[in-house]
Specification:
The strands form eight sheets. The chain has a four-stranded antiparallel β-sheet, with no helix packed on it. It has a single domain (13-207, 216-346), classed as Methylamine Dehydrogenase, Chain H, CATH 2.130.10.10. The chain contains no helices and 30 strands. By secondary structure, the protein is mainly β. It has strands spanning 13-18, 23-28, 34-39, 44-50, 55-62, 65-66, 69-70, 73-81, 86-92, 102-105, 110-115, 124-129, 134-140, 146-151, 157-162, 167-172, 177-183, 190-192, 199-203, 219-224, 229-235, 240-245, 250-259, 268-278, 284-292, 294-299, 305-310, 315-320, 325-331, 340-346. This is Surface layer protein. InterPro entries: Host-pathogen_enzymatic-act, N2O_reductase_N, WD40/YVTN_repeat-like_dom_sf.
């Protein structure tokens, strides 16, 4: 008899950002019971769990709003104790600003944070020591707004996606330099394969300008870092924002769907899709409907459960990744239009 995907998760916690809360909400991973909310400064976006220090890092990206439509960019990260559910420190990266993407190298004790460009510098990645919480330096990405950032398992190569720049920035993490620009027509979320041989990048950029002209085909570009080129594309019907790779080799993509509405320039949001591929064979395995505007995807350490946060419906869908059945939908409190965003799975203390 197959074991329930919830079995053995007692004491594990799912942490969820409410962008306009502004807060981080905590849920029991076995029962979905709401454990409480931690108010944080505006406006939180992404989360990253450091198992070595047993801390959550949360980017505080804007004073209000979102990319290209905000009331000013913030400069801080909140460091959170997930057990006591309190902020233990606010790390200020000034003059760097607009922190968003997070990638962790537990072996070297390094946290990489993408930041937006300023008048005197291009966008880049700030390197933080996870034990001292202090910045060690920055790596330029030669793009105005690197938004998501991911590293290979060896901790040697990093990838920054750029919404407007027509390339993905590839950086050498050991030397701290930009080494390549892979031609991609604007990009969103990304993930790196377990062997580091490929990066999977959502493209094109999800532009809501409504401008005329032919758009590039939607899908996930497969990048070979050795040749710094796109070697394949996994097609999708709709534009993709978040991309996530599970420990079992499943590639998860969040498709944004809109429906036509008379008098509305962009239409209205329709339920999104969680689309699942096999990262090795690049074959499509199936899909399941989720909430409005999927923006972040995560999974349990064993790769059995997927979590999809949807910012407009302000919900998190919990999905059995073996059966592609939605097991639950968590409601995340919000004060404005933007709700559920960053996600992190926190295993119970040893």
């Amino acid at each position: 008899m197959q074991q329930s995907p919830r079995a053995g998760r007692e004491g594990d916690v799912l942490a969820v950002v409410s962008q306009s809360g502004p807060a981080v909400s905590f849920f029991d991973a076995a029962s979905d019971r709401h454990l409480g909310d931690l108010p944080v400064p505006a406006e939180p976006h992404e989360l990253c769990y450091d198992p070595t220090q047993r801390l959550l890092w949360c980017t505080l990206t804007y004073h209000s709003g979102y990319y290209h439509a905000n009331a000013g960019r913030r400069t801080e990260l909140a460091v959170i104790d997930p057990d006591s559910r309190r902020i233990v420190e606010i790390v200020d990266l000034a003059p760097e600003h607009g922190p968003h993407g997070l990638a962790l190298d537990t072996g070297r004790g390094r946290l990489y944070v993408s930041v937006e460009s300023g008048e005197d510098r291009p966008g880049g990645v700030v390197v933080i020591d996870t034990s001292t919480h202090r910045a060690l330096g920055r790596i330029d990405t030669d793009a105005p707004g690197p938004h998501w950032f991911a590293i290979d398992p060896a901790g040697r190569t990093g990838y920054a996606t750029n919404k407007e720049a027509p390339f993905v920035s590839v950086v050498d993490l050991e030397r701290g330099v930009l080494t390549a620009k892979v031609e991609v027509p604007g990009s969103e979320g990304l993930a790196v394969s377990a062997d580091g041989a490929h990066a999977f990048v959502a493209a094109p950029y999800a532009s809501f300008s409504g401008g005329a002209g032919e758009r590039p085909a939607t899908g996930i570009r497969v990048i070979d870092p050795l040749t710094a080129s796109v070697v394949d594309t996994l097609p999708t019907e709709n534009v993709v924002l978040p991309v996530h790779l599970t420990s079992t080799g499943k590639l998860l993509a969040g498709e944004l769907r809109m429906t036509a509405e008379p008098g509305a320039r962009l239409g209205r949001h329709a339920p999104g899709l969680l689309t699942v591929f096999c990262a090795d064979t690049r074959k499509r395995l199936g899909e399941v409907e989720v909430g409005l505007f999927p923006l972040t995807i995560s999974s349990s350490p064993d790769g059995r459960l997927g979590y999809v946060s949807c910012v407009i419906s302000s919900t998190v869908d919990v999905v059995d990744l073996e059966t592609l059945e939605r097991l639950a939908r968590l409601d995340i409190a919000k004060l404005g239009e933007a709700g559920a965003h960053g996600l992190a799975y926190v295993p119970r203390p040893a």
